[in-house]
Amino acid sequence: MNVTIKDIAKQLGLSHSTVSRALNDSPHISKITREKVKKCAAQMGYVPNLSARSLVTQSPQNIGLFFSTLSHGTAVSFFYNIFQSVNNTINGSYNLTVKSLDKYDDFNSVKRSNFSGIILVSQSLLDIKFVEHLAKNKIPSVILNNDYSDMGFPCFVIDDEEGIRLAVDNLYKHGHRSVALIGGKEGFRSSNIRLEAFKKEVNKLSIMINKDDYYCGDYGIKSGYDGTIEILRSSNRPTAIFCMNDEMAMGAIQAANHLKISVPNELSIQGYDDDLFSAFVVPQLSTVHRPLDSMSRVGTEYLLRMIREKVQGAFVKKFEPTLIHRESVSAVE
Fold first, then answer.
1. 191 phi and psi, to 5 degrees?
2. What's the CA gap between 147 and 161, in Å, rounded?
3. Which of 150, 170, 181, 222 has minimal CB crowding within 10 Å?
4. pTM value?
5. 113-126 pLDDT, tens per residue?
6. Which of 170, 201, 189 is CA-nearest to residue 287?
7. Domain annotation for the chain: domains and CATH numbers
8. Positive/negative CA dihedral, 103, 215, 143, 133
């Protein structure tokens, strides 16, 4: 037999309306009462009927999670970390729909009658059309991973300029003065920011970059492999390769192994992102942790406030990355 709101109300000695509002995170119900009701509901096995709630409230019970792409340039761990954090934060209070913009040509179905709110994980510079659609239709929305605050959106991003500085400095502190770079996917905001930050930091530290020491990757393992093979063909072999994400760094390690070049004894490899598998490759990957889970959780919490409390704001909140030094980077001998 399904547990109902009436059952929870009877168990706690509260009114039906109080329990209902508590489960919907009404700001008119105290935090203590909301937590008590939710704890009791979980213990009793209560499952919200979102269809019924939609009929009562006359509003959709759907949140859309849109990515620029899910097939070209989106690392598995990037998608997984964000999806898991968003899903856990929503915690069954809304249906979660996941879509990819590169497979979604018709924006007309993205409207307030179908979605209570939208989370856009913006990677591509082409996302501007979808952002304009959200603004025009006044759909409660937050942007993760990109800054569209000038268009009126709350935006939640990771400070990649600081992250790149940490990565380059790690190589510098280990004596590397000749560093090659495998860049990210063309047309991605992250690729542009990381490349400019890399140029700035290597210039500041007087690290040598030869013309053959740059390869444009696509955030995939194969591009890391191919880029490393090409870079290591150069007569001026670098002492280290910096890959702009961990998947490419894993490909770089494979390429070095194929060429019988020891990592890190003969070549150091620095990754970026702190991929789910970065601690399990051999050697373990030195990388930079980007707090995708925190960024996604805080962004989703703000969207829920936009939906329930009608808060509004246009701002950028930055989350700080941290260096994770492991085995793939060692001192130059």
1. -65, -45
2. 14
3. 150
4. 0.81
5. 899 999 999 988 88
6. 170
7. 5-47 (1.10.260), 62-158+291-320 (3.40.50.2300), 160-290 (3.40.50.2300)
8. negative
